[in-house]
Design goal:
With 193 residues, this protein is an alpha/beta fold. It is built from 9 helices and 6 strands. The protein has helices at 2-11, 26-35, 51-59, 82-94, 108-112, 117-120, 132-138, 157-160, 183-192, and strands at residues 17-20, 40-43, 68-72, 99-104, 124-131, 167-172. The model has no long low-confidence stretch (mean pLDDT 86).
Amino acid sequence: IWYSFNLLNELGIDNQLVSIPSNDNEYFIEEIRKINPKAKCIPDNVPIRGNAAGLISALLSIPENIDHIFVLHPDSSCFISVSTVLPALEKHLEQKLVSTFSVKEENFLEAQNSITNDDFEPKSAGVFIFEKKWITEVAQLLNVDSNTNEHRIEYLFEKAMKTPLRTSLFSIPTSEYKNLNTINDINTNQLKS
């Protein structure tokens, strides 16, 4: 989460929301305030599971004057640099895109050729840029992952492909993509870096 805040700050994104569990969330609020007192914590209050549940909860709290949202999945965005993300963000805004998905560098060509969510999801890299109006309309229509019974942000891919001229992919270099879920993962990756 610290890395996510750091990247947002370096990009100049000040309006920062964090999706947290709806139950027993005092611990999360306290820990997040230690890292970033200005961040707003949004309890995940929608009756679905998965990372899209947090996104849908947060959408309800985004100010009206915000036109685009930048979504980070904390456990896979730790080492992503500003120089990787900024060109994608600038392109998204300049070309008035509805969706921009990050993909793993080694899977970029496969991701470009993906047709279904199941083809695309393993190749995605945890950074998303969405037009707020578009995401608000389609997020509630997400399909459920049959294996995990979750709504996944990555599963917005099929909906985005219905507007291909307004959808973009950008690659995250292999050196910057690390999936971290435990302290052990962090220690191992620090040794490799």
